[in-house]
Amino acid sequence: MLNRPNQSTNNQQQNQTSQSKSTAKWKTYDDPVQIPILMYHAVHVMDPSETSNANLIVAPDNFEAQIKAMVDAGYYFLTPEETYKAFSENVLPAKKVVWLTFDDGNEDFYTIAYPILKKYKAKATNNIITGFVKKGNVGNLTVKQMKEMIAHGMSFQSHTVNHPDLSVTDKATQKDELTNSIDFLEDKLNTKVNTIAYPSGRYNQTTLDLAKKTYKLGLTTNEGLASANDGLLSLNRVRILPTTTAKGLLSKITTDNK
Asked: Gene3D superfamilies from the xrefs (predicted)?
């Protein structure tokens, strides 16, 4: 979770989102498919006061270079629903796929990342701390902003209500965190939610037992390519650091899918 000064750079573009009405032909694979699930948090120019969160912040020009590199390399940007289909049926809509995920629901996803994503017609998912949205916290996305972005191919999934360490949270509280967050998102956004991103990547067996009653996919902070072999509720992700170059990113997301 990132605490940062409020920034607002309203640079929206009206390009249509790519793959919004996908005509992809899904191919079945013999070996378990691998999917790079990228993990971002914030996209903005880091303020000197944010040094403690430095590894969570990617500069806008670096982010744009990464998106452009993936587009130029022919990557297909997955939605949560497509990712579940890929893992559950062992199929892919293209040889090169990637799922862009952001944690925490920071406002710079709307003001900075979203215009870049629209420019390159790329899709992405932001995992929302719903309690922060409900309280109207400064620096977090609003329901209005999320609704606008959904119309352009973005999606919003759960990052719990209050961002607790689930690994040391009692069962009743965990249940509330997992169910109340999905209820809020589905009610306010009129959309289906199938994914939980565990706060700080921390969870336990109780978390997994509760999650499987409500969610189809669970995102960890464990480093690596994601595979159904890891369990659909404990998927790896590829962490994107401030120092990750576009070239370095492409090397991180190369899979063995054949």
From this structure: Glycoside hydrolase/deacetylase
What is the topology classification, in CATH, of domain 27-252? Answer: TIM Barrel (3.20.20)
Domains of the chain, by residue range, sit at 27-252
Q: Is the pLDDT of residue 214 over 50?
A: yes
Q: Buried (b) or exposed (e) across 218-235, using 16+ Cβ within 10 A?
A: bbbeeebbbbbebebbbb
- Mean pLDDT, all residues of the chain: 93
Q: How far apart are CA 233 and CA 134, in angstroms?
A: 26
Residue 19 predicted with pLDDT over 70 = no
Q: 33 pLDDT band (50/70/90 cuts)?
A: very high
C-alpha torsion sign, points 53, 59, 65, 67: positive
**pLDDT at res. 52:** 87
